[in-house]
Amino acid sequence: MPFRAKIVQTLQGILKRKRLKALLVTSIYNVRYLTGFTGSSGFCIVTPRDALFFTDFRYTEQSEEEVSGWQLKTEKGRRIDVLREELRSLGIDTLGFEASESYEFYELLCRLPVKILSCKGLVESLRISKTKEEIDHIKHAFKRAEDAFTRIKAYIKPGVREIDIALRLEGALKKQGCRRIPFDIIVASGANGSKPHAKATSKRIAKGDFVIIDWGGEYEGYCSDITRTLLMGSTNLSEKEEIYGIVNSARERAIKAVAIGTPANRIDAAARDYISSKGQGENFGHGTGHGIGLQPHEEPRINKLNNRPITEGMVFTIEPGIYIREIGGVRIEDTVAVINGKAEVLNKLSTELEVVG
User: What is the mean pLDDT of residues 30-34?
Assistant: First the structure.
């Protein structure tokens, strides 16, 4: 049975156990997860027995090609009116909706002649553990991302602007087949690197700069996310080499801490405690990682607040960093999948310090 059919069956079983007569799914990521539909407009109604997919005239043909195992319907007119008629036809008097829905649409739902219930994370709870097919898609997304980086890597050197590196890398990702870039590519050199989510600027890379490059690829809608930090050659690099070594060791410790049943915050602590022991704790202010899949950031969150146990099939980043004003920053990001109870690193690029020039 295709993995999406199994997922729908699992969701229908959840609805039965919760005695929920119907669930309205409007998040386009959740719609894609359940149906395989790649368009930008559509929604689902799932009951314990039925699975209905709606899209408008623009995507009718596309949905016929992409979506199987669902009743396909064309959305004509206002969505709320389509919903009202469909719920009446199905005899539904209680409707669950996604808690991520906009308040504007929630107000419209309140006018329906049914009882509505906010349902937080029903579909997302299924997305958190990936199937083999999903993990294979993510692996392909990594190959595309790493091949693209390898093609432009020689261009990264003193004198080149951050923005030009980002543009070249984006073009290389598209040439590798990525239909979209999962997030804005980060290229941050020198002092810009002390900002974890710095935007690529017209700053030219200088000798002695750390250069953080954070990018991702895509395959069949699934994302990859990688960060590597290069060091431009110069004199007196020992302090920067030490900082890099601390981050890389923290990454290794966090990966070794990954195991089924281990709370996410214990993985975070493996990296954070080591960085703190080296006197750099105040310079590591973000979480150690995040889940990745159809979205570049999703559950599970690997941070000090999340005590959720790790389970089979989870896919998430490990990305400790150190950020120092006026000096710059280092971040090294790998992604692991929990397969047969162990952490498998999905990306292949070396994490050893590379001094350019």
Answer: 97
User: Is the pTM of the predicted complex or chain greater than 0.85?
Assistant: yes
Same domain membership, residue 223 and residue 330: yes
Region 140-169: mean pLDDT is 98
Nearest CA to 210 out of 325, 334, 347, 335 is that of 325
Shared domain for 162 and 63, answered yes or no, is: no
pLDDT at 3 over 90: no
Q: What is the pLDDT of residue 1?
A: 56
What's the number of domains the chain is made of? 2
How far is CA 44 from its chain centroid?
Answer: 22
Pairing of the two strands 334-339 and 315-318:
antiparallel
115 and 143 part of one domain: no
Q: pLDDT tens-digit profile of 293-312? A: 999 999 999 999 999 999 99
For residue 267, give Cα distances in angstroms to 139, 214, 255, 291, 343.
Answer: 22, 21, 8, 13, 12
Structural domain that includes position 210? 132-356
Contact 322, 307 (CB under 8 A): no
